[in-house]
Amino acid sequence: EFVRYPQNAVVNLGQSSFTLSCLAKSTQKNKLHYKWTLNGHDVRSQPDGHDQTGPSLVLHNVRHGDYGWYQCIVSDPVNTEEKVVSPKAYVIQPFLGSFQNHPESGIVRVGESVVLSCLTGRSVPPARVYWEKDGIIFKSGTQKSETTKIIGQPLITETNMTLKITATDVVSGEYICVAENNMTGDIYRSDPGSIQSAGEI
């Protein structure tokens, strides 16, 4: 049975090395045999690609072909019919997509409030999301961020960001939602939503 399963991971393209590992135990004294598969196919050791040593699999200079789902298969060399297979562990390249929904323009009257919202593109890992007003980070108002995982897509998320502002803490201007991926350095900005005070119209 397994003591440690391989874990999902986000790995940059070209990363010099990355290690997947698993560990199993047996009631027998026989030394266990470990094998790895990628997308259901055996992974073979290569001088410049993969290095498999017991329960560890090292990926060298990560390539596009290294992304996918891995499984660790452990068997008893004496009784090869007995083997255990780990759950899938996904190795995914970080990325950030463009915004799916953008803030809408609106008018706010004294004593009333307006809510702006945006929905980021899909991201791995989760994006950092914040608001800008007229090109400057905006920290006022009531801000709420909700990140959800995409069903059937391990590690992939999208974030819904809302901003509630009232006539007492806002002046007219353009509000933009910003998403950043700290692994890739990618930054996306939504289309602007223009807010006007009723007294300025």
TrEMBL record:
Residues 1-86, 87-196 form the Ig-like domain. It comes from the Eukaryota. PROSITE patterns: IG_LIKE. The keyword Disulfide bond applies. Keywords: Disulfide bond, Glycoprotein, Immunoglobulin domain, Signal. Pfam families: Ig_3. The keyword Signal applies. InterPro entries: Ig-like_dom, Ig-like_dom_sf, Ig-like_fold, Ig_sub, Ig_sub2, IgSF_CEA-related. PANTHER family: CARCINOEMBRYONIC ANTIGEN-RELATED CELL ADHESION MOLECULE 5-RELATED, CARCINOEMBRYONIC ANTIGEN-RELATED CELL ADHESION MOLECULE 8. This is Ig-like domain-containing protein. It comes from Octopus bimaculoides (California two-spotted octopus).
